Amino acid sequence: MPMTDHQYLDRAEALRGRLYRTAYLMLGRETEAIDAVDEAIYKGYRKHHGLREEAYLETWLTRILIRVCHDVLRRRKRELTVETLPETAQERFDALPLKEAIRALPEPLREIIILRFFTGLTQEETARALQIPRGTVSTRQKRALTLLRLELSDEEGAL
Predict the structure, then answer these.
(1) pLDDT value of position 86
(2) In the predicted model, is pLDDT for residue 23 greater than 90?
(3) What confidence category does residue 155 fall into, taking pLDDT thresholds of 50, 70 and 90?
(4) What mean pLDDT, rounded, does the chain reach?
(5) Residue 58, Cβ density class (10 Å: 0-12 exposed, 13-18 middle, ≥19 buried)
(6) Residue 86 — left, alpha, or beta (φ > 0 → left; ψ -120 to 50 → alpha)?
(7) Angle subtended at Cα 79 by Cα 70 and Cα 128, rounded to the nearest 5 degrees
(8) Residue 38 exposed, middle or buried by CB count within 10 Å (0-12, 13-18, 19+)
(9) What pLDDT is attached to residue 83?
(10) What is the rounded distance in angstroms from the CA atom of residue 8 to the CA atom of residue 48?
(11) Are 111 and 130 in contact (CB under 8 A)?
(12) What is the rounded average pLDDT of the residues 35-44?
């Protein structure tokens, strides 16, 4: 007989500390570890009726947690440790070389730069606004910043 929702939640809550330690060791960041544990418990909750042996709940939840942590690490790797545009981005935008370089970007890349650096949206908010995956935002952002660096370095060389 499969465990009830209440039984699952009680047992998962009892494992939360152990799961957190695992996530923290894998991710090294407290907030990401807490989020990963919450996500793993939620994913387990949605599928716990398919668990054949209650005795394997801890192993099963840990395996789910590890997959969640790998996803976080993959996303983190894709996210750029971008040298952000200056704090006075609007002032710099009004400077002709940057303004022209941004206008020269293909539309999908230009949208990302504007939403991320001039509107101040996060990657997640940008993804929702454009109705594209977050990974696509990260990829386009990286490509746009590379093109901007090339364009602006060529501009400086021409001066």
Answers:
(1) 47
(2) no
(3) low
(4) 81
(5) middle
(6) beta
(7) 95
(8) middle
(9) 44
(10) 7
(11) yes
(12) 95
Query: Which amino acid is residue 91, in one-letter code?
Result: E
**Residue type (1 letter), 70:** H
Burial class of residue 113 in the structure, from the number of CB atoms within 10 Å of its CB (0-12 exposed, 13-18 middle, 19+ buried): buried
Tokens matching residue 65? 């947690």
Tokens 């387990």 found at = 44
Give one DSSP letter per residue of 30-54, joined into a string: HHHHHHHHHHHHHHHHHHGGG-S-G
Owner of token pair 């799961």: 19
Three-state SS sequence of 61-97: HHHHHHHHHHHHHHHHHHCCCCCCCCCCHHHHHHCHH
Give the DSSP H or E segment for 151.
Answer: helix 134-158
- In the 8-state DSSP scheme, what is residue 55? G
pLDDT in tens, 84-137: 444 445 554 555 677 778 778 887 897 788 778 876 778 888 888 778 999 999
* Cβ atoms of residues 98 and 38 within 8 Å: no
